[in-house]
Amino acid sequence: xxxxxxxxxxxxxxxxxxxxxxxxxxxxxxxxxxxxxxxxxxxxxxxxxxxxxxxxxxxxxxxxxxxxxxxxxxxxxxxxxxxxxxxxxxxxxxxxxxxxxxxxxxxxxxxxxxxxxxxxxxxxxxxxxxxxxxxxxxxxxxxxxxxxxxxxxxxxxxxxxxxxxxxxxxxxxxxxxxxxxxxxxxxxxxxxxxxxxxxxxxxxxxxxxxxxxxxxxxxxxxxxxxxxxxxxxxxxxxxxxxxxxxxxxxxxxxxxxxxxx
Length: 261
Known about the structure:
Arc Repressor Mutant, subunit A; Beta-Lactamase; 2 domains; six-stranded antiparallel β-sheet; 9 helices; single chain; about 50% helix; two-stranded antiparallel sheet; alpha+beta
């Protein structure tokens, strides 16, 4: 015969349920930010307005929500901001990307790496090499060119111009190109969310790259897959590109970026 729940058990379950409802309302406030009406919030969480209002009062009392006295709309409070900033401060893109990077390598059996923007340009900080006799390996610490690598071009498309202008002008002079030669390319990379090259940096080597974004929509890293042209197809519509995009979006989501469905 099943054991009857004690009053203490029931009270504990009620507290857990209340906490779940409270966090659902906090998430909704974030999704509807910067502010929303009670009716819209209640519709969003699919709860009666009277119930949502009770939870809002508790959240306001604890500083996690606030109400605008002029509009009566609700938004996130100062304590929610402090929690959010603390979470963002603890985000390390290398730690967040470690598992997705290895999973991407396992799925494609091609060398995969992540690069961040350093004082000399796009710098490789972690690599998962392909598991086979002949691999294309980029060394940790390698600095990739801005305009002659898929990794660099993705950084160039997403970074503010002030961060790339010095390196860009140096490479433009060496290549004999002008800034206007890359304007349309950068816009296209931002629109597609990835870029591919065929033998641009190294003959016989193809590469696919996608950006990793943070909660503010700023680029924090670039995820790249490289492989020999004979067996790796860097097609932006192909399965490798789709898996790369999925991995980059997962890392971006973990970094706080609101990934479109």
